[in-house]
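Consider a typical record:
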Amino acid sequence: MKAEVSSEPHERKESRDKVYNQVEVSKKDRSIAVERSAEVKALDADYFAVKDQIPTGFKLEEEYQKSRKRILQVLGGSEEDWDSYKWHLKNRIGKVEVLERIVHFSDEEKKQIEKASKGYRWSISPFFASLMDPDDKNCPIRMQAIPSILEELDSSEIKDPMIIKYNSPAPLISRLYPDRVIINVTNACSMFCRHCLRRKDIDFKDVTYPRRLLDQAIEYVRENEEIRDVLLTGGDALSLSNSQLDYILTKLDKIPHVEIKRLGSRMPCTLPQRITPELCEMLETHDPIYLNTQFNHPKEVTREAQKAVDMLTKCGVIVRDQTVLLNGINNNPHIMKKLMQELLKIKISPYYIFNCKKVEGIRHFRTTIADGLNIIEHLRGYTSGMAVPTFIITAPEGRGKTPMYPQYLLNPNVDGEPLIRTWGGHILQYPDEHQPNGSPNGIMGNEE
């Protein structure tokens, strides 16, 4: 039997063998690589030891199903009702007598909830209530949704964190930056988060602002050609009807210098049923649309949220997350890492982690800048770069977002080279580029 003769040209075989030789690692180098791999693995050993103990929405599906059935029984709803966002909005839980049939608390806690609720509005969508642990008062979902006596006791914080009167050059407009503005379209939400920075503006009644004010806000955008980015928020932008949203987006589409529109909405988390085929069909006509949402704990990343985001991405909407750093809820590097990884799994891009603002009634949620920096320290390098948001504090006097970063540049000039610290803690000198004759960017001046 004749041996098979390769038909591969000699030149191609030589080229292929050359590539193989280039990627082949010597036994000595391989040994070093194995040691380095073990070192890298050990850096994250503490997270791997606990990550499976962190509760997530996907792990808790069975418990959530039980809660859903219990809530439907309490509210007199059907499975068909559960799929209707309008039913959830109509049946928001805002009375202690209803809440105590869904979660358990003592008589004293009941009195405290009633007292705290007199100062600020509260209500919870039935869907978000189904994520609450009925027996654990420290459940991160409960802490975000149910009023606490600590709100009533806190009177030390400022009442107006953005200094609205200095940043509103036109009705419903908030402007802090050169090329973008906020249009506050409503005060309504599917639920009222206890850490809300706009809690004083919520009042006790849902309001959709009149069209004449919306038109004045849009006219302001039209008159200022540097504005390329408009964020519709409130409240929650998806509290508006599809036709109301369509009206505003159509007006903005007709302004040549408006390049992108953004929607601020927590509903992919708190009421994912709001993402309907009809909504998506309308949004697709207003490309490009970005939706900024807010997930604060892995328990919130549910199958329903995944379905909602799938629908949004298929119609071209880009979904990004703006988490709020909350004491006792997510100010833990392991929990935050799990949250960011869970978000990526359902195609939400981590964008910001906001330091909780100094607003009256929410001091118990606030934690330190050091906590936020420690979280970023345990994300950068320890997980995908896509899972590392920017940590933001809001400057006093309504001066806008200010990014905070761990310090990786230790000294810009040690014997002519920068001294850096890597994410893994190695201290190294970096071989920087030296500009000729000290000229910036390597551009030489004209020689005479």
In short: The CA atoms of residues 327 and 365 lie 5 Å apart. Residues 442-448 have pLDDT under 50 and may be disordered. The chain has 20 helices and twelve strands. The chain has three domains: 61-153, 164-404, 409-442.
